[in-house]
Model the fold of this input.
Amino acid sequence: MALSVAITVVGGTLAACGAGDADTGADGKVELSIGTFTEFGYEDLLVEYQRLHPDITIKHNKTGQGGPYHQQLFTKLGANRGLEDVVAVEEGHLSDVLAKSRLFNDLAEIGPKDVTADRWLDWKYKAGTDKNGALIGYGTDVGPLAMCYRKDLFEAAGLPSDPEAVKPLFATWESYFAAGDQYVAGTGKAWFDSDAQIFNAMHNQLPTGFFTTADSLDIESNRDIRANWDAVTAAGARGQSAKLTAFSNEWNSGFKSAAFATKTCPAWMLGVIKGQAGPENAGKWAVTAAFPGGGGNWGGSYLTVPKQSAHPREAAELAAWLTAPEQQVKAFVKTGNFPSQVEALSAPELITATDAYFGGVESGKLFAEQAGKVAEPQYKGPGDGRIQETVTTPALQAVEQGTSPAEGWQRVVDGAKKIAG
Done:
């Protein structure tokens, strides 16, 4: 699911003190390592790359959870040893990597010269560059946002349920919360899963995150952040939130038990819904090409080459090949990770992809349309992702459990200041 994966490749570039201490094997082959987390869909691709490059061998270090993976990444960065030649970075942690861009190679300098910015969606490419314009990461997948909803629950509440007919409900956040009030009034049940999930989606649509472009904490002076906080907590207080912690057991079972009627839905969320709601709910869930505020992105990763690598050019060649449109389409077919490459978005394998669970929707075409709605990448300062994960989300959970929105907001301000230093 478009969550980052760390990859270590043993082939053309080996971290000098990286995932293994050998630069070249006894057989004379260049040994590369690649580090990834969750599912990138690279297992078959790495085998193919070694077949095409018999002078390269690759070791793939794959971690199940993105959180521990990124903690280890920054520990190894600080120690200047232990990183793979190719390292995956999830977009939520990218700002911390860009703040340490001096420790990574500029892929525009060491990578293949035919790999240019026009390979990627403009916003995806820009997000992988540092303030000096150095390209720190080749984009892998993205998580363009649409809205998923339960058709049967909408019908029971007197709301339209056809994917085209529901689009006006999801046109703006105001219309979304207004429809939520109608749903709660008609059913007495929750409209969305949690305050935090909605707040994060709203927040990520702002031009800047919790920091200014000068990396000054902006949480108190940025009125849009507080306005989003007030809107979400007010909707939750009116009964719209199911008060579930994302990816918890209760949240997982909520898809099956109809604990909420709508879900912010990046492309990879379709797989989550199918897995958690189960076959008995096939056809009840639907997805529509609409999202409040126009569009957004949740998830996706980049492949980087740390300066620890002893074979940076070979590592960059591997990362470039893995992020080529052809390979990203293969990864999409295997795992559903949605490509960020322009050519891949019009590939027949993607455009013709349908999903019977969601009523036969042309899911590939739908999310390609949503990807095109994302504008400039949000500027995130160092610590931005940590504030969202460890400060705003717990504070919103506290509000759902009875803390006043004002007190919860003060927790956010205080916690953000500690992280910003």
User: Anything to note?
Assistant: The chain has two domains: 7-142+298-350, 144-297+378-420. The CA atoms of residues 252 and 276 lie 6 Å apart. DSSP finds 17 helices and nine strands in the chain.
